[in-house]
């Protein structure tokens, strides 16, 4: 799903513009961090893949050697070697323990093998009467095979865990890059456009109000001028005993003479 051409439904205000910008900054930082995490996990993933290939190649040789050692031990000690070994073993000498390794916030399971020294000493005496050397060689070969199997199991488990973590991280990176950030950017553009439009409307409204006030002032001045002329004409008509129209005519003639003198 692409976020191009889509935006969030918000009220275009200055406050919301600040909120959207803060969200965009957070989304950008989150995208950068997740991208770095994805790169780190990918590097570790490739390294584990190389180790798995190497371990599988070693496992083939070691399992072949251990099978051949078992055949030699059966030939030297007889077919009833299994019962002799089972009677001499009381507890496992090779054990496995698990731990976790943190790689870029992802916990990878790790399996480690260790040897129980007490059990190992007891098992050294197995087969001394017949074929003891071949039995010990077979035991050493199989212990080495177990070590490789434990290492391979650890690598395979880490491989699967990393694969799932990389897929999840890449989905989040793609969502931020292709959906979240474009939506926030489109929303910010929309809010800026609406705010600019509101600003133009306010400017036009102020110009209209100023023009109305200017016309109102001019009208008031004109009315005041006419009122003053009427008062002056009444005064002249009373002083000279002429009609009001004649007084207005005298004022008009006097104003024209003054204009001629000025010009």
Brief characterization of the structure:
Helices cover 79% and strands 8% of the residues.
Word description of this protein:
This is ATPase V1 complex subunit D protein. Strand 1 and strand 2 (106-115) form a beta hairpin. The chain has a domain at 14-194: Helix Hairpins. The model is unreliable at 125-129 and 258-263 (pLDDT under 50). The chain is mostly helical and 263 residues long. The chain has helices spanning 14-77, 81-88, 117-123, 132-240, 244-262; strands spanning 94-103, 106-115.
- The gross shape turns out to be rod-shaped
* Class per helix and strand makeup: mainly alpha
Q: Over all CA atoms, what is the radius of gyration?
A: 49 Å
Low-pLDDT runs = 125-129, 258-263
Strand adjacency order, main sheet: 1-2
> Would you count the extended β strands for me?
2
CATH architecture of the domain at 14-194: Orthogonal Bundle
- For the termini, the CA-CA separation is 80 Å
The portion of residues forming beta strands comes to 5-15%
- Please trace the helix and strand order, writing H or E for each element: HHEEHHH
Spell out the blueprint of helices and strands:
Blueprint: H1 14-77, H2 81-88, E1 94-103, E2 106-115, H3 117-123, H4 132-240, H5 244-262
Antiparallel strand pairs: 1-2
Helix pairs in contact: 1-4, 4-5
């Amino acid at each position: 799903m692409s976020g191009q051409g889509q935006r969030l439904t918000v009220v275009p205000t200055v406050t919301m513009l600040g909120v959207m910008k803060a969200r965009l900054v957070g989304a950008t930082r989150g995208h950068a961090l997740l991208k770095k995490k994805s790169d780190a996990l990918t590097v570790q993933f490739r390294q584990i893949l190389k180790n798995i290939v190497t371990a599988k190649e070693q496992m083939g040789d070691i399992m072949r050697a251990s099978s051949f050692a078992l055949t030699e031990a059966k030939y030297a000690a007889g077919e009833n070697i299994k019962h002799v070994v089972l009677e001499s073993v009381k507890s496992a000498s090779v054990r496995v323990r698990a731990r976790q390794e943190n790689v870029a916030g992802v916990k990878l399971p790790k399996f480690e093998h260790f040897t129980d020294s007490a059990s190992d000493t007891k098992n050294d005496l197995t087969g001394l009467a017949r074929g003891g050397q071949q039995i010990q060689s077979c035991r050493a070969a199989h212990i080495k095979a177990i070590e490789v199997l434990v290492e391979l199991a650890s690598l395979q488990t880490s491989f699967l865990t990393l694969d799932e973590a990389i897929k999840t991280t890449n989905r989040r990176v793609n969502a931020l890059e292709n959906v979240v950030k474009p939506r926030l950017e489109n929303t910010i553009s929309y809010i800026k456009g609406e705010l600019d439009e509101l600003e133009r409307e306010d400017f036009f409204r102020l110009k209209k109000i100023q023009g109305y006030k200017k016309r109102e002032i001019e009208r008031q001045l004109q009315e005041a001028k006419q009122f003053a002329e009427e008062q002056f004409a009444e005064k002249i008509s009373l002083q000279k005993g002429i009609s009001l129209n004649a007084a207005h005519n005298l004022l008009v003639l006097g104003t024209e003479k003054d204009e001629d003198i000025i010009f």
